[in-house]
Amino acid sequence: MFNEQHKKEMPLIGMLGMGGGIARAGGGGSSASGGNIDGLAPGNGYKYHTFTSNGDFTVTGSIDAEIFIVAGGGSGGSDRGAGGGAGGIVSYTNLTIGSGTHPVVVGDGGDAVNANDGNPGTDSSFGVNPSPVYLIAKAGGGGGNNDHPYNGKSGGSGGGANYYGSPGPSIQNSQNTPFIPLTGFNQYGNIGGDGSGGPKYTSAGGGGAGGVGADGPTGTGGGGAGGNGQQFPNFTGPLIGIPALNPLNGYYGGGGGAAAGSENGYNTPYSPGGAGGPGGGGSANPHPAGGTGNPAVQYSGGGGGGGHRGDTPHISGAGGDGVVVIRYAV
Q1: Residue spans per domain, the chain
Q2: Any residues with CB less than 8 A from the CB of 269 and at least 6 apart, and which?
Q3: What is the pLDDT of residue 123?
Q4: Cis geometry, peptide bond prior to residue 278 (ω within 30 degrees of 0)
Q5: Which is more confidently placed, 116 or 68?
Q6: How sure is the predictor about 221, in pLDDT bands with cuts at 50, 70 and 90?
Q7: DSSP-derived secondary structure letter, 150
Q8: Cα dist. 4→31, 141, 153, 166 in Å?
Q9: What stretches of the chain show up as alpha helix (H) in DSSP?
Q10: Against a cut of 0.90, is the pTM above it?
Q11: Contact (Cβ atoms closer than 8 angstroms) between residue 39 and residue 32
Q12: Helix or strand or coil: residue 240?
């Protein structure tokens, strides 16, 4: 069905190198401001600037900071819908940011759909002025639907495939300038899962930041689970000031779970929908008890759950919005 291109892949971690140094405010009275949560100091030796919508990060002097960027997740497909792919994640461990106003873009999750392919999310990014430096996390891909070509859509993590489709590939996140040292740039994203084909006709989970989406099961009428998210212990909900993320324990970018298989593939009265991946991915409800897929957790970048065939309405779950967080030692 999907030969060489569908081989399971390791997450896109550290493709441009690991690195570090401790992020900290520079001397000489350096300061920074910006974010929906501006300068939270949770007592661990760092300040956090958390952006849940577009804005500016303003620096006076010079700051060595750690940048954490999560793109918006894709929504699930509907009508035997596959799970949406999680938004890509970028972590830059030690970036010197000079005086100026630096733009932050926070990606939205993909909107829910009815009888259609899942929608992609949108990219998140951080730019450093005046140099043309941008760190970009790519949006999650939408899940496949019950109409040809059934495929999951590409994204930071790819959407899952409908039962006869191909999984969405993972697009690399990027730094778009040669002027940033490669050391310290890390990225995370995976492909979606593969559809089962006949005779069970089950769809696949969306890719997650920490793992591929599960293939559509061939032995049951259930849907594939979303790929695992990736854990970032330095950016848990309590540290960045978003209580809704507290239960995720620092996991971001879970893939969306797929809806159950076709009417010819059920082997139980209530075929289970696929679970959302740890990291905020939305699950699919059992068929026929519920046709609507569950949305991803907001600000997690998770993918949305798939919607079921034949239920009214059979709407997919929306993808989760992304987040951008900048932290530095104080």
Answers
A1: 1-330
A2: none
A3: 96
A4: no
A5: 68
A6: low
A7: -
A8: 50, 20, 18, 12
A9: 237-240
A10: no
A11: yes
A12: helix
Tokens 């896109």: give the residue.
12
DSSP classification of residue 123: -
How many Å apart are CA 144 and CA 306, to the nearest integer?
9
The label of the residue with tokens 């799970």 reads: 83
Quick one: which H or E segment has residue 92?
strand 89-105
234 confidence band (pLDDT: 50, 70, 90): very high
CA angle 137, 143, 146 (to 5 degrees): 160
Amino acid at 7: K
pLDDT attached to residue 165: 79
Amino acid present at 69: I
* Higher pLDDT pick, 19 / 222: 222
Distances (CA, A) of 256 to 74, 183, 261, 300: 8, 32, 16, 12
Report residue 134 as tokens: 């941008």
Residue owning tokens 């990060």: 57
pLDDT of residue 169: 82
- pLDDT for res 272: 67
Q: Which residues contact 234 (CB under 8 A, 6 or more apart)?
A: 46, 66, 68, 250, 327
Average pLDDT over the chain reads 83
> How large is the average pLDDT for residues 139-154?
88
Q: How far is CA 190 from CA 46, 199, 273, 284, in A?
A: 30, 27, 21, 20
- Selection from 216, 236, 283 nearest residue 256 by Cα: 283
Query: Both tokens of residue 238?
Result: 């309590």
Amino acid identity, residue 99? S
Query: Tell me, what's the pLDDT at 296?
Result: 96
pLDDT at position 70 is 98
Q: Exposure pattern of 174-203 as b/e (b: 16+ CB <10 Å)?
A: bbeeeebeeebbbbbbbbbbbbbeeebbbb
Which tokens is 110 given?
A: 């993909």
Pairwise pLDDT comparison (264 vs 67), residue with the higher score? 67
Using CA atoms, how far residue 82 sits from 174, 196, 268, in Å, is 27, 11, 20
Q: What is the DSSP string of 128-144?
A: ETTTTEEEEEPPPPPPP
